[in-house]
Design brief:
By secondary structure, this protein is mostly beta strands. It has no helices and 22 strands. It is 0% helix and 44% strand.
Amino acid sequence: EIYVMNPDGSNQTRLTYNTIWDSNPCWSPDGSKIVFQAGSNTNNAHEIYIMDRDGSNRTRLTNNSVEEGTPSWSPDGSKLVYYKDRPGDIYVMNADGSNQVRLTNNSADDLQPSWSPDGSRIVFESNNTEIYAMNADGSDQSRLTNNTSADRQPRWSPDGSKIVFASNRDGNFEIYTMNTDGTNQTRITNNSVDDQIPSWSPDGTKLAFIRMTNNDWDIYVMNIDGTNQVQLTSASGSDAFPSWARPVY
């Protein structure tokens, strides 16, 4: 299910109550909506849904027999980028689910897309192994990481200068940052357990992420240099896929 909480971990509130799996929530740029993926009652594939910030007005945006998920908003809130099918490709559609357009066409899975803050570029992982970037129309695809380990879950910083991602290149998954051209790849967590799924705060000063603790995932927050790591959740179930909300104006 999907929950919300304050940035300090307080006031944890459940938004969805379903027999199907809800995950990968992502706040709209204006903070009024949440897009997410959910299992389907009619087949085993996940579809993309949208709801109001309080969990009301749940609306299905995609309706296909194939897997669709990891949705992410364009900076102006007018479009959604997501993956479709397995092996998956990156698609874009209007925020109401119309005009679905394919951006990549590869033999490997393309997943976890994230828009640059100016809307001109999209970063994504390919086959859970390397990170690529491309223009918002799918052109000019360029590889940003190149190693034998898994680099995944990229997210563009709010100021457009950095990309945060997870990698197991040093033995287990840790959080890294790099410049948007792939240079200056820097490790910012150094733990004996896995750290994954990083998410920027709207002002770019902090990162939320998940850590494997006691055979369970919990959500943590830290400064962007890796300092001041604070645990926010400690429930018996796995807490994952953090996404930071913007203020509602």
